[in-house]
Amino acid sequence: MNIEKELANRLMNEGESAGRQEAYNIEINFYEVVASGNMQKLEEFLVYINDTQKFGKLSSNELQNAKYHACILAALVSRFCIEAGMEIAVAYNLSDIYVELIDAASTAADVAAIQNDLLRTYCRKMNDQSKNRVVSRHIVIAIDYIRSHIQESLTVETIADSLSLNSSYLSKLFKQEMGITLSKYIRNQKIDVACNMLRHLDESSLSIANYLGFSSQSHFIQVFKKTTGMTPEEYRKRNYHQSWMKGEEEE
Predict the structure, then answer these.
(1) Which of 44, 116, 177, 240 falls 20 to 30 Å from 106 in CA-CA distance?
(2) C-alpha dihedral (127, 129, 131, 135), degrees to nearest 10
(3) Per-residue pLDDT averaged across 8-16, rounded?
(4) How many CB atoms sit inside 10 A of residue 83's CB?
(5) What is the C-alpha to C-alpha distance for residues 151 and 21, in angstroms, rounded to an integer?
(6) Distance from C-alpha of 50 to C-alpha of 55, rounded to nearest angstrom
(7) What whole-number distance in Å separates Cα of residue 161 and Cα of residue 124?
(8) How many whole angstroms separate alpha carbon 182 and alpha carbon 174?
(9) Which residues of 138-176 are buried (b: 16+ CB within 10 A; e: fewer)?
């Protein structure tokens, strides 16, 4: 097969790439949800994906096609979770275990079930990882609330209200157990999400600012630069689509 000729033919037949770009953005957001440990959002995504997702054709055999896509997903999820702090050995061994299960599956439905279990396992481990640092039940719930409402304009008061606690008490408790103020933790979590979006998506600073509940684009840029030392666009230029390759180059 002439690869270049086949690529040209497929690109010509595909036409507009807007649909592909939208699917790519959804896919990246999906991996971010898993890596963030947001179990509630993952379940919402799984309902959406199971209802709407149509796999590309990697094989004319339905079962083999499902297996190929599931193995790709396992590789990508492990990468995203490593970037978010999961131990490399844990991430890769989990991936290996699930790839073996996928390989042994006898139906496409079995592959789908294994894939969903894989996603829930990675997401749960990322969720547990964020909680292992703390002891207080109040702080665990506060962290869960922040992760589940990261797109909102979060304040110490709104989080304290959700826990029926005094805001001053929650602030003191959070600093004591996490070694960081609650306000700074919220900011850091939002900037972490923003960094991942800038690395993997083409969204503008305005879109990211709106998505993460910042009051304005200028406020987002100001907070981002204060946290990372770079503007969002400077960060994107240095890191766009580079994060996965860095680990391989260093090995």
Answers:
(1) 44
(2) 160
(3) 61
(4) 20
(5) 22
(6) 11
(7) 26
(8) 6
(9) bbbebbbbbbebbeeebebeebbebbebebeebbebbee
Structural domain that includes position 126: 20-131
Q: Kindly state whether residues 159 and 57 are assigned to the same domain.
A: no
Report how many domains make up the chain.
2
pTM above 0.70, yes or no: no
Q: What is the pLDDT of residues 16-29, one digit of tens each?
A: 455 555 566 677 78
Type of residue at 191: I
Between CA 145 and CA 180 the distance in angstroms is 17
Question: What sign has the CA pseudo-torsion 150, 156, 159, 162?
Answer: negative
Q: In the prediction, which pLDDT does 117 show?
A: 95
Task: Give the span between the Cα atoms of 24 and 151, in whole angstroms.
Answer: 20
Contact indicator for 80, 34 with CB cutoff of 8 Å? yes
Separation of alpha carbons 138 and 144, rounded Å: 10
H or E segment at 164? none
| 141 and 238 both lie in a single domain | yes
CATH code for position 224:
1.10.10.60
| 8 Å CB contact between 174 and 189 | no
Q: Quote the tokens at residue 1.
A: 């097969």
| Residue bearing tokens 């103020």 | 181
CB of 241 within 8 A of CB of 199? yes
